């Protein structure tokens, strides 16, 4: 989560999503086996093996002494002349680097890249398809060859009307207010009816994508803003998944929870949002173990930051107005101009999203992650779509002292600085 519009526009350089003819995404073998990283890693592993041989070579004389002096003399030229039972300093570094390489290689290649074939008889439910990632995921699933049930909050939204123009037999658009239990029940019945009317249909996956993000310090946000973020981002996926569990168990489907970088590293100005996404991540990890015995996969997917391509902050100006109306006189006096500067800064981002058109997110790696999560025989537990500077900052967040970490978070966010009101 970083506000830097110029940096985010670099996403426009990404490739377009897969076409409708791309039934199943396959990772090219040449890319997996012949990378420079793999060759370097194998060389480091060889060096580690050599260092292990040297270690045992230093201990060899003690073992061979029981075999007689003649045998010992025969092997003595092979014994390296290093200090007994000690690695060379450089050897320790080599072993550490090689061990890390082994771990990365294991993580990279241990998961099978065999994929299931996407079929029209496999039903995928995607929530939050009015715009942004949900709209993009629904179209991507349709292009892969799945039958898609796309839920929207407004049947007259641009995203809903665009999705209805696709093949009606393979794309159905339904209204779903995730805060309404009767809407959730109707959604379950719609999917049940779809499967009942087509004997070969099965529930392949539900994608819990719908989410709400409201920027603002905790003291500013009114109660229903906090409640809505918790309900939509956390409670709704729990209730929806629970309602679909009988079908998921029966068809050995999978659950894909669209999480956030904020679930992994909490950021200021998003306390309620971060709490909801961290809770969703914890729910995902617990449910994954629960459902493994049923053959139901549970996957977390961190899509990345697309402020210039989605409408997640399109209502931020309205939220800011409500925050200011709900503030006490003391609160307004204390924060003073800082409140207005803060929201003026956010307005530059929200204005990018306040148009009536809807478009697909343009990020090839996001679609690769979605494809693998949907079709891989052995999907990963967590898919992250992160640029290198996200990964670098998140690593530093974990290893730095807390005071340094907090200062780095402030620099990472690039939000306006607070200054005590002159009054």
Helical content class? 40-55%
Give the N-to-C terminal Cα separation: 33 Å
Form type: flat
H-E order? HHHHHHEHEHEHEHEHHEHHHHEHH
SSE-based structural type: alpha/beta
Mean residue pLDDT: 80
Identify the strand order in the major beta sheet. Answer: 3-2-1-4-5-6-7
Biggest sheet record: 7 strands, parallel
Q: How many beta-strand runs?
A: 7
Bin the strand percentage. Answer: 5-15%
Give the low-pLDDT segments.
2-35, 78-88
| Individual helix count | 18
Taking all Cα atoms into account, the compactness measure Rg is 27 Å
Quickly describe the structure.
With 423 residues, this protein is α/β, with parallel strands linked by helices.
Provide the fold topology.
Layout: H1 5-8, H2 29-33, H3 36-58, H4 60-64, H5 69-75, H6 89-109, E1 122-126, H7 132-144, E2 147-152, H8 158-164, E3 171-175, H9 181-197, E4 202-208, H10 223-251, E5 254-258, H11 261-264, H12 271-292, E6 297-302, H13 316-326, H14 329-335, H15 337-350, H16 364-375, E7 382-384, H17 388-399, H18 402-413
Parallel strand pairs: 1-2, 1-4, 2-3, 4-5, 5-6, 6-7
Descriptive report:
- This protein is an alpha/beta fold and 423 residues long.
- 53% of the residues lie in helices and 9% in strands.
- The protein has helices spanning 5-8, 29-33, 36-58, 60-64, 69-75, 89-109, 132-144, 158-164, 181-197, 223-251, 261-264, 271-292, 316-326, 329-335, 337-350, 364-375, 388-399, 402-413, and strands at 122-126, 147-152, 171-175, 202-208, 254-258, 297-302, 382-384.
- The chain has a seven-stranded parallel beta sheet with strand order 3-2-1-4-5-6-7, sandwiched between helices.
- Helix 3 (36-58) crosses helix 6, helix 10 packs parallel to helix 12 and helix 17 (388-399) runs antiparallel to helix 18 (402-413).
- The longest helix is centred in the middle third of the chain and has 29 residues, at 223-251.
- It is flat, with a radius of gyration of 27 Å.
- Residues 2-35 and 78-88 have low confidence and may be disordered.
